[in-house]
Amino acid sequence: MSKRWVLGLSIVMLMVMLAACGGNKSEEGTQPSAGSGSNNEKPAGENATEPVKEEEPAKEEPVKEPEPATITFMHFKSDVTDGIDKIIEQFESEYKHIKVDVQPVKYDDYYTLLKTKIAGGDIVDVFTLNAGGQTKLFNDGGYLEDLTGKDFMANFEPNVLAEQAIEGKNYIMPLNAGPIAVFYNKKIFSDLGIEIPRTYDALIAAAEKIKASGKTPFALGWKDGWPLGMWLSRDFPSNTVLVEKQTDFFDKLEKGQAKFVDNPAALTVISHALDMFKYGNKDQLGVDYNGAIDLFAREEAAMMYMGTWPLGDIEKKNPELYNDGMGYFPYPFSNDESLNKLEFNPDASLAVNSNSEHKEAALQFLAFMSSKQGGDAWVNNTKSLSYVKGSTTDIAPALVELQPYFDQGQLYNSQAYITTTIDWNTPFSQYVQKVFFNKATPEQILKDLDDWVAKNHK
Fold this sequence. Notes:
Blueprint: H1 3-22, E1 69-75, H2 81-94, E2 98-104, H3 107-119, E3 126-129, H4 133-140, H5 158-163, E4 173-174, E5 176-179, E6 181-185, H6 186-191, H7 200-212, E7 216-218, H8 225-243, H9 249-254, H10 264-278, H11 289-297, E8 301-306, H12 311-317, H13 319-325, E9 326-330, E10 342-346, E11 349-352, H14 359-369, H15 372-382, E12 385-386, H16 403-407, E13 411-412, H17 425-436, H18 442-456
Parallel strand pairs: 1-2, 1-3, 7-8, 10-13
Antiparallel strand pairs: 3-11, 4-11, 5-10, 5-12, 6-8, 6-9
Helix pairs in contact: 2-15, 8-10, 8-17, 12-13, 17-18
């Protein structure tokens, strides 16, 4: 059989099949022929030409717009108010249905005001907390939303979440962390031949040399209570746990089984405070935090113990100093160089009020802050590090000097040692000022501190 014949036969068969498929269609106005085998045959008397009704397409449900909401956000990062405002602008541009009423409060007044608001039924939707005692206090009161297992919590390292957990549950979301160390003026150190001090005695020897040159060794802004309190709340637990090996001091303090007068670290810290006062700027208790930054930025003071918070202000006030004129070294709280690692603490964490009427919007705010976009926004606008995985670490040139400590894991967190809910730091900060002006001895203020604990913590 030739190929041409096969091809012709195939075409004929195709035409027959097409005709069979179209054979049921009658000419206009006629019935299909009887016995055609059509599946469209109608019983006699039924209108065979009635059109088949087409099914109406399903109606699409309209997209429901999210309900507009305004959430309140109260925080103690008033030193970086402008930066946080920029972060809020980014959030509101992403979540156009949510507005954020930002309420910055100075740290010294923060917890008093927050407790007053919450106790009075004034709902604050989102607020900052410090991990540890303050978080436990608010959680015990039933004010914190349980964040355990929320999708956005996966953006943080498990060990970080574990450190901030209470009985295995997370009631706060880690926001930022950073080193607490000593900024120093490179030119002053170089001119005086001073090397980076690795022990406490070396730090004080450097301060003596700087003072003899006519410069101010330490920029202190102790008119605000928190800078002095911040220093005390790190020097004291570091010396208590790492030097004196009283690892359970704060546990015992909570139970009424330990006293400050029996802890040698307490006298050490008072001695250190007297050194800071001696080598600080004039009128240390009359100069506030911003005044201390001005002293350092004007290069009138050689050193400043602080977190990374002032970097934005220093960059504005003295770009040359910021870019290559300043460095950063760990505060050497002891004379054992092996103990003097880099202090690295959590700073602010975020909590959602369990009584919030805008809980969904509040949780969306936390989700944004836990994203890489939110983490990078925090770093870029506040000059402090974010706990968010993968967020940028490019803060400032001065932090390059701390890189070896990060690389070698030479970090510690003194705040993890403070396991008590007793607010011992506030009276300690107040009493130690009496020693500055010879109105009390170190032994007297430690007795007063123990009396205060006994009276206020039953």
